[in-house]
Amino acid sequence: MTLEFTHKLGLGTNKVGGHNLFKDLDEQDGYDLVRAALDAGINVLDTAFVYGLGRSEEIIGDVIQDYDRSKIIIATKGAQNPDNDYKSDNSPEFLVKTVEESLKRLKTDYIDIFYIHFPDETSDKLAAVEALDKLKQAGKIRAIGVSNFSFDQLKEANATGKVDFDEDYYSLAHRDEEQERFAYLRENGIGFVPYFPLESGLLTGRYGAADRDKFDRLDDAKFDQIIKGLDVLKQVAEAHDVTLTHAVLAWYMANPNIGLVIPGARNAEQATDLAKSIDVHLTEDEYKAIDEAFKA
Ligand SMILES: NC(=O)c1ccc[n+]([C@@H]2O[C@H](COP(=O)([O-])OP(=O)(O)OC[C@H]3O[C@@H](n4cnc5c(N)ncnc54)[C@H](OP(=O)(O)O)[C@@H]3O)[C@@H](O)[C@H]2O)c1
């Protein structure tokens, strides 16, 4: 992990201009929530080409013109090839092209972290990373990431030790990564970035058993387990006089396996509120109680 973070809280921006992913998004909310996050001290922004097919990057590019670029860490991702029906393409030629296009949309000279968003089935993963390393040497990107790679693909990509970050689905209630992957990441100095840290809002405590339909990614057993675990989060949150969202984000920030946590916000109020979790520090007992409550 080659970058220094002031704290472990970043912002996920798939709801910033992500019209292709979410219904009824208001673009002005996207502008406002990025500003709100930066103003509240969240200075890492996680975006991707596929969030609005470039629109999220463009909005972020507009907003950062009013801020000190050197104080902001921008992570973006690419792999979906518009010339091939948006299928994943990890070829060196395509990756170089997509980085150049992201730079233009973000209106910046460099990207702090560039992730290969999804693996394709055929490209040599090491060749893909070596192509990104050339861009790193040229100063166009500062760190190399992979996302949604299987453990074998990650190891292939990192054969020469050049992967800096790994972003995957992982949450308090979805702990598959904890097996051998975390040990490998630690040994190789690769920062882990979990996505869906709030289980798309379910871990905030705003939803309950009656909202089962909204969370079709989760099977019944997992959904019930999360609803039960919320009681423990509630107790910890009350002890700190904060919300469940703050308590759950404090757990990720205290977790030594996690390099950065990137909850997504829908509007400026949520973004401002997320920043409050930076100051929540769990005791060891609280950390363990939350940890146990959500283990399968
Ligand atoms: N690499 C990848 O393939 C990949 C895949 C998915 C996501 N990601 C990244 O990970 C980020 C996080 O994922 P996500 O946004 O989908 O899910 P998430 O972080 O698990 O949940 C975000 C949701 O939590 C709720 N929320 C946020 N702030 C809140 C607050 N202060 N108080 C109460 N509720 C709050 C909102 O729910 P409501 O909308 O219901 O209000 C929001 O939409 C994305 O933005 C994206 O950058 C990456």
UniProtKB/TrEMBL annotation:
Q: Which residues form the signal peptide?
A: none
Query: GO MF terms on file?
Result: oxidoreductase activity
GO CC annotations, alphabetized: cytosol
Domain NADP-dependent oxidoreductase, chain residue ranges per copy: 8-293
Keyword Oxidoreductase annotated: yes
> Do you know which SUPFAM superfamilies this protein is assigned to?
NAD(P)-linked oxidoreductase
Superkingdom in the source lineage: Bacteria
Query: What keyword terms does UniProt attach to this protein?
Result: Oxidoreductase
Which Pfam family, giving just one, matches this sequence?
Aldo_ket_red
Spell out the PANTHER family in the cross-references. Answer: NAD(P)-LINKED OXIDOREDUCTASE SUPERFAMILY PROTEIN, NADH-SPECIFIC METHYLGLYOXAL REDUCTASE-RELATED
Q: What protein name applies here? A: Oxidoreductase, aldo/keto reductase family protein
